[in-house]
# Entry
Amino acid sequence: MFNLHKSLGLTVLALAVVRLAWRLYAGAPIPMASIPRWQLLLARVTHWLLYGLIIAMPLSGWLFDSASGLRPLRWFELFQVPKLIAPNTGVREIARDAHGWIFWVLVLLILMHAGAALYHHYFVGDGTLRRMLPGRRMPPPSSNRNS
Ligand code: HEM
Ligand code: HEM
# Structure
């Protein structure tokens, strides 16, 4: 089960890096015009925290695995994943604590984030959630690069 956990986690890491690179290249859709400034700011902070944490989450697990000096880590039994550092008790403890804490912060942010999407859909009634569906017209990426 731990190998599965680690393999899935490393897959999340790879996908998150690709997604972040695409986000930095292509930007994001322009927010709905009706959204107040403070909400835009809060959404922006939350989104960047989510990006940071979906990378920090598996990275801290990988660091913990590396610092523990455990058996070789094989990605879905296909190939061996390099260790990030040599065994180190201090780093091991910090990485383990971080892995636990980041998870709970992430859970909290995801609940806030999903709650905000449902708030927009059911209470405000704007298109924030609906426009996530495929096939919706978006402004060209270049018009909002790195926003
Ligand atoms: C999206 C990615 C990941 C999520 C959401 C996640 C989540 C978790 C959670 C919730 C725990 C239990 C924490 C606790 O008991 O305090 C855990 C433990 C653990 N994770 Fe992950 N994990 C991820 C990726 C990884 C990766 C990539 C590795 C290693 C390569 C890893 C290695 C471990 C190990 C070794 C433990 C046991 C920690 C202990 O003994 O206290 N995790 N993980
Ligand atoms: C029920 C679950 C979820 C719903 C309904 C939801 C909904 C949404 C919506 C509607 C947006 C677009 C906001 C806009 O147009 O400005 C968005 C963006 C985003 N979501 Fe979610 N989301 C969910 C889960 C998650 C999870 C689990 C994560 C990551 C752990 C996540 C990360 C993000 C990020 C990073 C953005 C910003 C994209 C960008 O502008 O680059 N979401 N989400």
Q: What stands out?
A: Strands lie at 73-75, 79-81.
